[in-house]
Specification:
7 helices; globular; five-stranded antiparallel beta sheet; alpha+beta; 13 strands
């Protein structure tokens, strides 16, 4: 894996890409603002896979794709690139490994299924903050890594729980914005994760897996999603799904798209202009093999 920073890569250009105009000092306030700007500006999804564009964990390649060509990506790309930005600005950044609960199969993915970040801020007592700009509808502002945390954000109520015992893993759950408190609903779990430090190269195998496996949403469905103030917009196959967060719950509207309309929708709703032809795909996902 090539991850060397090249001279033409500029944090300022990246900040312009995410429409961030605040300060660059490594403060908690700036971290929260950059995280929110990122999820509101950069789509999450699988479009490159269905345009015949192989994804490799090369920092210059990911920078070129996301910043220069104004595209989106999946967790290994978006959180990997965000880790570089935060490190360049003076934050302490550690990559973590997670396992996502697939919303179609209800199963957790394999080890290293997801990449997320743990960030420390100078002057905040070394307290770590969970960051994740590479997930469809997760928290918009970083979460303090605190067992039992319940935090209400614009797009839902988020809960962090640590498993009992030394070295226990963590679980992130999301309840709809209308929820008054946590429930036992199994589908609320977004993913589990460990705080054991990982390196970007550790995710190379799963980066390949998600481009080819019939148990991966990225391989089985052409999709992207973008968080919006008050909602979420998603493209899947030949559907456009618009979600509004209301006091009564998440309200969804689905529009069926003609294939020739998809490039226009991607441009107008997600700011994405593809260079190669997209092959729409919306196939069933197979449950992953049993295992740890």
């Amino acid at each position: 894996m090539t991850s060397d920073v090249e001279d033409w890569m500029e944090p300022g250009e990246y900040l312009s890409r995410i429409v961030y105009e605040g300060g660059t000092e490594p403060t908690l306030e700036n971290l929260k603002a950059m995280h929110r700007c990122h999820v509101l500006a950069v789509p999450f999804g699988s479009l490159a896979i269905h345009c015949g564009e192989p994804i490799q964990l090369s920092l210059p390649d990911v920078y070129r794709k996301v910043v220069v060509h104004r595209r989106g990506g999946f967790c290994y790309e978006l959180n990997g690139l965000f880790a570089w930005l935060l490190g360049a600005l003076g934050y302490g950044v550690q990559m973590l490994s997670g396992r996502v609960r697939n919303s179609y199969t209800g199963c957790l993915g394999p080890l290293d299924d997801h990449l997320l970040l743990l960030v420390t801020v100078v002057g905040e007592g070394g307290h770590p903050w969970l960051c994740d700009v590479g997930f469809g509808n997760s928290f918009r502002s970083p979460l303090p890594l605190r067992d039992g945390l319940l935090e209400r954000q614009e797009n839902g109520l988020f809960q962090l729980q640590q498993a009992a015992g030394e070295g226990g893993g963590w679980q992130l759950r999301r309840y709809p914005s209308s929820s008054s408190g946590p429930t036992d609903e199994p589908g609320a779990t977004l993913y589990t994760f460990s705080t054991r430090p990982r390196a970007w190269r550790d995710f190379e195998g799963m980066c390949c897996y998600h481009q080819t496996s019939p148990s991966s949403i990225f391989a089985c469905k052409s999709f992207c999603s973008l968080q919006l103030p008050g909602g979420l917009v998603s493209y899947v196959g030949q559907r456009l799904i618009e979600t509004q967060f209301t006091a009564q719950g998440d309200c969804k509207t689905t529009t069926v798209l003609a294939e020739e309309d998809i490039p226009r929708v991607l441009r107008d709703r997600f700011g994405i202009v593809l260079r190669n032809r997209l092959t729409p795909k919306d196939e069933d996902i197979l449950p992953p093999r049993e295992g740890p």
